[in-house]
Amino acid sequence: MAAELTVPLLTEKHRPTLDQALEAIRSRAYWSPHPEHPKAYGETAPADGLAAHEAVRGTRLDLGQPGTDGWAGGEVSPFGPALAVEYPHVDPDVLLPAMKAGMAAWRDAGPEVRALVSIEILARIGARTHEFAHAVMHTSGQAFMMAFQAGGPHAQDRGLEAVAYAYAEQTRVPGQADWSKPQGKKDPLNLGKTFTAVPRGIALVIGCNTFPTWNGYPGLFASLATGNAVLVKAHPRAVLPLALTVQVAREVLAEAGFDPNLVALAAEQPGEGIAKTLALRPEIKIIDYTGSTEFGDWLEQNARQALVYTEKAGVNTVVVDSTDDYRGMLSNLAFSLSLYSGQMCTTPQNLLIPRDGIATDGGHKTFDEVVADLATSVEKLLGDDARANALLGALVNPGVKERLEAAAGLGEVALASRTVANPEFPDAVVRTPVLVKLDAAKPDDAAAYMSECFGPVAFAVAVDSTADALDLLRRTVRDKGAMTVGAYTTSPDTERAVEQVCLDESAQLSLNLTGGVYVNQTAAFSDFHGSGGNPAANAALCDGAFVANRFRVVEVRRQA
Amino acid sequence: MAAELTVPLLTEKHRPTLDQALEAIRSRAYWSPHPEHPKAYGETAPADGLAAHEAVRGTRLDLGQPGTDGWAGGEVSPFGPALAVEYPHVDPDVLLPAMKAGMAAWRDAGPEVRALVSIEILARIGARTHEFAHAVMHTSGQAFMMAFQAGGPHAQDRGLEAVAYAYAEQTRVPGQADWSKPQGKKDPLNLGKTFTAVPRGIALVIGCNTFPTWNGYPGLFASLATGNAVLVKAHPRAVLPLALTVQVAREVLAEAGFDPNLVALAAEQPGEGIAKTLALRPEIKIIDYTGSTEFGDWLEQNARQALVYTEKAGVNTVVVDSTDDYRGMLSNLAFSLSLYSGQMCTTPQNLLIPRDGIATDGGHKTFDEVVADLATSVEKLLGDDARANALLGALVNPGVKERLEAAAGLGEVALASRTVANPEFPDAVVRTPVLVKLDAAKPDDAAAYMSECFGPVAFAVAVDSTADALDLLRRTVRDKGAMTVGAYTTSPDTERAVEQVCLDESAQLSLNLTGGVYVNQTAAFSDFHGSGGNPAANAALCDGAFVANRFRVVEVRRQA
């Protein structure tokens, strides 16, 4: 096969990016090659992206995959319209062997070529960021700007980060080595050795509804860049962004002279549950999953032939002890609770506040004052419907709405959720967060704050003291897991104490955020997403452990 | 606690060693700081080591551990004498919490101090290598020189290699980073970040009978150097070498100002099976195991709260296609089959030889000639009883003898096993290998060559062709696993074909070994022991994946 994307061309285009990514994961300073501003993509990009999105609606997205035994689809945008796109439904008995066929050539290409091809895939996705933004928006319910940033450049960053880790890990061992062992007065023993990174097999990515690209790319690119074939089983309500991703990957692989079947999509009929079937196939050696604890646990316990990387439910806590920027704290928290209607695995849920109140730069504030002031901050942030729509997006599914409505019955409502009208998408269900008061001293309240209530629901939990808050934080992380922990304090001792809890229980901590960085946001190349050390996730995005076991090193030694 | 082993002292003593080890795992050239020659340890070392070994016999080895609720022991040397050493039997409800108590300080010490303390432990073990050699000899049944080398410097090498990997992995992320994200005309977003490697919890090392130190040290030091406490559950027939190891570790930890309970020993009463109990304790977060597939599988399926690293049974193959050094091949194979009576997880078992014979520098050799010549080579190698004893050691347990005797009934015996008298240890059971002819074309023979027959048993399996041999090799590795594969060929095409099988099935390959390097030996810092990619082991010694998940990184970020 004559490759259009030759190695010299790929090297010229992408080796500098790879080198910068390698440096960034080492320094962990700020870096990204993927612009966040929609305007950075050229004057016609917004219109082109929208047109491309509209053109794909109502079509059959034929990816040219072997083993396509039918078509599945049926996504309906959380903003209202049906997408009406059909995707390939697969016969694993045909598709999986076809996916394996190209693996030897992909393995033999080596880590650098795999990295460069992966970056080309990301670059082509990047060029279509506006189109992807619409796809993410109309599957996740994220408002456009968030879908653009989180589903576009930030997801591409996480994919590139995984590529960089994969490359670094595979090249820790040289391709060859001469080994000469002295034997005293006798001749030394000499061996020539070669070392080859070999893949595990076929990797299965099980996508999620809320962040199909952001949560899907790390596993997809970590597996692909380490030589594995990748089958993407998208969430039935969020297929389009990953189908487009697979389409681009197949196109780039073919142009680079590799088998496009190294990456394939599996869509499913409603209620079919093919993830279970695929996860137990002997060909599947790696699984990446984001979603419910129930299915994550099932995968970990049943897919024994595979390495299983899971991100599951957790309960995120913010400890409110004291602050020297009360207004900054309130506005920062209000934004964190509101963004994407709290439908992020990183959104804070439990705000632990001493019942006697806290010290602030505006004087002492009682528990009730803090809660009321936070409620006011949220109301102000979301008071304007246009701004509210731009921040909240739409509820991703009816389950979120049910939980939101049930939450009002769990305690005293400090801030009621309000319905926001969306003139552009009248069918979108747009709701502001509910803030409910609970009390750690009341045993009946524990059921609420000790489980994840995914969606725009926050609990202001009264605690006896900051020490009490730290005990509860520790128990929450240990028993329920947490993707994020936040804390506000002006006390160095309290700061050390909360750090200690997070080190003991493996939780990622944000301290005293009062500006434009929020506890629920992490930046690739610098911040870890999850720790992999508490029940919320068994892996972190992205570190050495996330990539190191996706390949093995085979040594061939010869007498020299 | 006033530390006698200060950080400056440890740095001066061991940082150069750590740096050399880091360079060695990168270049994979030959390197070892641990001398192989008994004479390198000083003139009085042999007598001192023997005296120390004799002094410990018949004593109670009180390690000063909390939660000691009794004493267990009862090892009998495969060379005859009872060791009569008693070791602490533990109450996990007391010991495990005590082991956790020192973990925060050990974590806070950081990766470099943990590496230096680990190297000090290895250095003190190294200084007592003669004593350890006797301990390994009289538990494993290895002859003295092998016990000295494999149980001493080679095991210390593997421990140091794990320390180097652990250090490298933990320091891939900086301790701190400044992060500044441009915001166009607005002020940048600034965060200060710290990154801390945090341990998983308590690691359990489940030791094996044949290589208590060599197979025990990688997991022990990988876990310790990544901040975990380590509980060593020795094999009931091979406690002494690991008990001495724990003793040294506790002594060094205390002198360096850390809690000695970070490392502890668990001995057991005969038939007690405490490994199962310990493996399921919630405090145990990491398990390293070498032994039977049955128990390895049990651990993987049941110890779900822990990361489980297992080395299990496998079937090692040598493909004999052709050679330009027939005598070299025969003597190399004869040595590999004989060393430690084939009781190595890396010893070849199945020699696949075309039934029409092979081309050699001595002309064409029929299948029967090759087998007969190999038998003669083994007979010559082991013809002298003194030399035979020095190579073979003793059978480690009665099960090996039973398998050896049963093997003679599996096919035509090309070389019968003979009993070698050991004048120094008359009770030792010393047996030369049996070589049995099988035929891949006879379905009844498959049961023999498709399962591990651990001990001095080799099968010369007639195959239709080299292509047939490669098919059988592929099936064997895929279905049964292999720690090693060997091949002899003068054909570049055959060489590529066997390489291809090993890359496809993740097996470590040695080609055309005819000199002083044997397929069953691997050198730390350069060779991988196992691949972690076939059923014989789920991890390789030692690579990034072996250490990367033993710790997690916790980030604390603060608004700057």
List the helices and strands and how they pair.
2 copies of one chain form a homodimer.
Chain A: H1 7-27, H2 45-56, E1 68-73, E2 86-90, H3 92-101, H4 103-108, H5 110-127, H6 129-140, H7 144-151, H8 153-170, E3 176-183, E4 186-199, E5 202-206, H9 212-225, E6 229-233, H10 240-255, E7 263-266, H11 274-279, E8 284-290, H12 293-302, E9 307-311, E10 317-320, H13 326-338, E11 350-354, E12 358-360, E13 363-365, H14 367-381, H15 385-392, H16 398-407, E14 412-415, E15 434-439, H17 446-449, E16 457-463, H18 466-480, E17 485-488, H19 492-505, E18 509-511, H20 544-548, E19 551-559
Parallel strand pairs in A: 5-6, 5-8, 6-7, 8-9, 10-11, 10-17, 11-16, 15-16, 17-18
Antiparallel strand pairs in A: 1-2, 3-4, 4-19, 12-13, 14-15
Helix pairs in contact in A: 1-5, 1-8, 2-6, 5-8, 5-10, 6-7, 7-8, 8-9, 13-14, 18-19
Cα Rg of chain A: 25 Å
CATH top-level class of the largest domain in chain A: Alpha Beta
On the 0 to 100 scale, the average pLDDT of chain A is 97
Straight-line distance between termini of chain A: 36 Å
Q: Largest interface: which pair?
A: A-B, 68 and 68 residues
Strand content of chain A: 15-25%
Strand order of the largest sheet of chain A: 14-15-16-11-10-17-18
Compute the number of strand runs of chain A: 19
Which CATH-level-2 architecture of the largest domain in chain A? Answer: 3-Layer(aba) Sandwich
Shape of chain A: globular
> Unreliable runs of chain A, pLDDT <50, ≥5 residues?
none
Number of domains of chain A: 2
Helix content of chain A: 40-55%
What fold name stands as the CATH topology of the largest domain in chain A? Aldehyde Dehydrogenase, Chain A, domain 1
Number of helices of chain A: 20
